[in-house]
Design the sequence.
């Protein structure tokens, strides 16, 4: 089954695989559950951004935050590792309302762009055991995509996701060769690592082919 990720605020989400990514770990509302500190914004750029709210234009403010959040947080993480560590159907929590600017939306869009997974902003009704999908500021994804494209070696790929899987494959292949030179032997586990790297490269080709095909169809419709 394809992986899926949810986001929400502390008021709307009370049960499930809850994971706080707030800088204060949700202490303001008495949250005491799981946290993922690596996704919290860095205080330095957050303070600069916060102190200039109302002074900078919204466009400048949004771009400043997104660029610094990507440079100082997201670019330091491997999205596949993050999804693995978050567990099954995680719900990332922060304080802001669903349509407010919030880094939880940036995390969701980052994982969409890098891994191609589905993400949703939600509100849960515990009494009725129902889940409501809410609107979110989708425009943030376009800004984040521009930032990633400007700061990533896409190696000729058009799809950010395809480039990610290709780059990861190259990293694993090179690491395998370095380890082989150091230990001067190959065992079954090494072969599996190399096969895995090759599978990622094949996945990159498939993602790129689908991405280009979809873009061509969109162009024809216009």
Sequence:
């Amino acid at each position: 089954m394809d992986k899926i990720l949810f986001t929400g605020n502390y008021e709307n989400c009370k049960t499930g695989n809850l994971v706080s990514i707030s800088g204060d770990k949700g202490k303001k509302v008495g949250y005491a559950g799981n946290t993922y500190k690596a996704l919290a914004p860095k205080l330095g750029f957050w303070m600069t951004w916060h102190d200039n709210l109302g002074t900078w234009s919204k466009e400048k403010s949004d771009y400043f935050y997104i660029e610094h959040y990507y440079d100082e947080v997201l670019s330091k993480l491997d999205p596949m590792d993050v999804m693995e560590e978050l567990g099954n159907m995680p719900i990332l929590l922060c304080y802001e309302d669903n349509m407010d600017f919030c880094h939880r939306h940036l995390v969701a869009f980052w994982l969409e762009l890098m891994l191609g997974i589905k993400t949703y902003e939600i509100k849960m009704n515990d009494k009725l055991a129902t889940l409501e999908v809410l609107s979110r500021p989708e425009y943030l994804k376009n800004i984040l995509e521009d930032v990633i494209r400007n700061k990533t070696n896409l190696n000729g790929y058009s799809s950010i996701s395809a480039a990610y899987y290709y780059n990861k494959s190259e990293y694993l292949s090179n690491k395998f060769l370095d380890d082989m030179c150091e230990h001067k032997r190959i065992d079954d586990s090494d072969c599996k690592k190399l096969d895995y790297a090759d599978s990622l490269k094949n996945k990159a080709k498939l993602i790129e082919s689908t991405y280009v095909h979809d873009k061509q169809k969109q162009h024809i419709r216009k």
Remarks:
- The mean pLDDT is 93.
